[in-house]
Design a protein that fits this description.
two-stranded antiparallel ribbon, two-stranded antiparallel sheet, mainly alpha, 4 strands
């Protein structure tokens, strides 16, 4: 029995013969292909605890598709290559550079979100969840701290860095003279902790590991 055959009959009509065994084999290969892809890319269901990121008290279960993984990967890279999703070293890090990085991340994340088609956000629950979390990280995680501290600290630093008494100090030593330094870094540590958790979640969604 032919597995696959194409020929013309006596009336010159095209005849295509496909063996049921070939059809079964194709179906099995498709099933195997989907299984391998799922294992390789680990399209599992993930639970996101909003409380750990500091944006709410819900636990969201999502199963990202490939487009969602790409969105999460872009955010993960931004968090990993800036001083934002990494622990702050308050002895050696310069706070103004950290604020620069946070502010730039705010703008870049907003651009990434704007680039996602509205139709995809409306039709995909997982995409909607990722966008929701990203927006709330900006508005509830970063924005309050930046609004409260960034301008005050920058202005103070600019004024005092030009004073004769402070010119010999390093930026790291000078910033410790800020009147509310202890309170500032206490709140900055809390934001940093939430952003590190956010980075972990984006890494898990994009490449499947913590």
């Amino acid at each position: 029995m032919d597995i696959f055959n194409i020929h013309f009959d006596k009336d010159w009509s095209l005849v295509i013969v496909i063996s049921p065994f070939l059809i079964i084999a194709i179906v099995l290969l498709l099933i195997l292909y989907r299984w391998v892809i799922k294992k390789v890319f680990k399209l599992n269901e993930y639970e996101i605890d909003e409380a750990e990121i500091g944006i709410g008290n819900s636990k969201i279960k999502i199963k990202p598709n490939y487009a969602d993984m790409q969105i999460a990967y872009q955010l993960y890279i931004e968090l990993s290559t800036r001083k934002i999703g990494l622990p702050i070293d308050f002895e050696d890090d310069f706070l103004i550079e950290i604020y620069d990085s946070w502010y730039e991340f705010f703008k870049v994340t907003r651009e990434h979100i704007k680039a996602i088609p509205a139709q995809k956000v409306r039709t995909s629950k997982t995409t909607k969840a990722i966008v929701k979390i990203a927006i709330e990280v900006l508005n509830e995680g970063l924005r309050p701290h930046l609004t409260k501290w960034q301008a005050r600290f920058r202005k103070w630093y600019q004024i005092h860095s030009e004073k004769e008494d402070f010119r010999d100090k390093s930026p790291q030593d000078l910033q410790k003279e800020f009147p509310d330094y202890s309170k500032l870094i206490e709140e900055m540590k809390e934001v940093n902790k939430k952003l590190i958790e956010y980075r972990r979640v984006m890494k898990q969604l994009s490449i499947g590991v913590n």
